[in-house]
Amino acid sequence: MQPAHPGARFRDQRRPPRKNKGGTLVLIISLLGVVLLAGVAFMFVPRMLESQKPAGPAAGTEVTVEIPVGASGDEIASILSKAHVIEDSKSYYAAVAALGADLSLKPGTYRFVVGQSPEEVVRLLVAGPNVEAGRLTVPEGMTVTQTADKVEAALGIPAQDFLDAAHASAFVGDYPFLSEAANDSLEGYLWPKTYTFTGTPQATDVIRAMLDQYAHEHDELGFDAGREEINRRYGVEMSEYDILKMASIIERETLTDDQRVDASSTFYNRLKIDMALQSDATMMYVTGGEVTAQDLKIESPYNTYLNKGLPPTPICTPSRASIAAALAPSDTDYLYFYYSNGTVYFSKTHDEHLEAIERNR
């Protein structure tokens, strides 16, 4: 073969490769298209996602919000945001700062209107709960069962739910004074007063509020000093639980403070000589109503005609005045009393007692 012309190979090596101008242009246009589409997607996808979020209540709608005790500023903001009370957390935080309300936001139940300004929301939180709270009034002398009925009527908590929760063993860990309670009963401990609850309290919340109040009152009443004085005067050892039992009997047997301290003295005088307390009120705890002569023959640990000493548990929740009377009875020689038409007639002897009954029937 003849070798190629020496200039031919030279010319082939020097010739630059041919550029595909049309392909490059297509590539550039394609890349620009991708960038443009990405930009469009970046602009519209968030809007599409936002449109898929559940719609909040319309402006002007009332919403109720519960701010729990101890909630932090961020937790409050989160609660308000979820309820659509605020839509812009930054504006809300700015309003809190502008009004100097960081430490003034109050827990409780609030009613807001969707669309209120952040400043209006913060001012409401500073003013305090604006939803009427549940009010529960427990009078003196109520049993646990009667209290349960009051709770149901005032707060809507079923009475049976309250009774199912009202066991001393469920609360003794936080309230050591319940260690003395008999029959796993809270009888006598559910302190009588008017309570205010926000939100939707549970039976245990109500019970704890009452036990907290009992603990507070207990610390002020001076149980230890009273028990020592009773032991000195009557030679009777009384536990704190015994004081509560005595106070509950006094509560159901009397109406006034003067009657309370004299009835207390009468009962302690009976204990001193090992005489039965003979209280109709303790049998009323069994019968739930008036006590007849036949009822007083019923064998029951609450029958203080047949059994000496105090009943197994208190028979109601006593008032502060009755507990004070149980801790500090008057100084008398009374052994009997007779109640008639709002008046109590005290006597030292059985004959005097019979005469008082005959005169005041």
Describe this structure in words.
With 361 residues, this protein is mostly helical. The chain has three domains: 62-127, Dna Ligase, domain 1; 134-220, no CATH class; 222-359, no CATH class. The chain is built from 14 helices and six strands. It has a two-stranded antiparallel sheet with strand order 1-2. A two-stranded antiparallel ribbon has the order 3-4. Strands 5-6 form a two-stranded antiparallel ribbon. Strand 5 (336-340) and strand 6 form a beta hairpin. The N and C termini lie far apart (156 Å). The model is unreliable at 1-19, 34-38 and 40-53 (pLDDT under 50).
Label this structure with key terms.
two-stranded antiparallel ribbon; mainly alpha; 3 domains; 14 helices; Dna Ligase, domain 1; 361 residues
Rounded radius of gyration (Å) = 40 Å
Strand content: 5-15%
Q: Portion of residues in helices?
A: 40-55%
Largest beta sheet: strand ordering: 1-2
* Mean pLDDT rating: 87
Total individual domains: 3
The end-to-end distance, rounded to whole angstroms, is: 156 Å
What's the shape?
Answer: elongated
Quaternary structure type: single chain
* Count of runs of 4 or more consecutive helical residues: 14
Structural class: mainly alpha
